[in-house]
Write a structure and sequence with these properties.
Blueprint (H helix, E strand, L loop, with lengths): L16 E6 L5 E5 L5 E3 L9 H12 L4 H8 L3 H11 L12 H21 L2
Antiparallel strand pairs: 1-2, 2-3
Bound molecules: zinc ion.
């Protein structure tokens, strides 16, 4: 994997290092034999590609919902919100919440309307 054993970032010791498991993304970690410092030699970047960012921007301009964009681009909603914050495209409007009370009110109104219609046209 590595042409030569990675150097310790703390003491820059060239002595052999120990393999020390992997990090969350599966990249190998090491521990310095000299100072016991653990480190990832070549950490992966967690930035999204400029192409993906441009795609998310375009979809935001199309006023798609954040959840839909996250699903379509295989990214986290947090990532979509981060692009949103960066570009300043206004967030898509949220659906108003339907509570039990509003549903009950709608049902009552519908019943009253039906009764009124029946009274007019028996
Ligand atoms: Zn060291």
């Amino acid at each position: 994997m590595y042409a030569s054993a990675p150097h310790c970032p703390r003491c820059d010791d060239a002595r052999p290092v120990l393999y020390w498991g992997t990090n969350e993304s599966g990249t190998r970690r090491f521990r310095c034999k000299d100072c016991d410092q653990t480190f990832t030699a070549e950490p992966k970047s967690n930035r999204i590609s400029p192409e993906k960012e441009a795609l998310i921007q375009r979809l935001l301009e199309e006023r798609l919902s954040v959840a839909a964009i996250a699903r379509a681009t295989h990214s986290a909603k947090r990532t979509v919100y981060n692009v949103l914050k960066k570009t300043g495209v206004p967030a898509p409007p949220r659906k108003p919440r339907t509570t039990r009370a509003t549903r009950a009110t709608r049902a009552t109104r519908a019943t009253r309307a039906t009764r009124a219609t029946r009274a007019k046209h028996p």
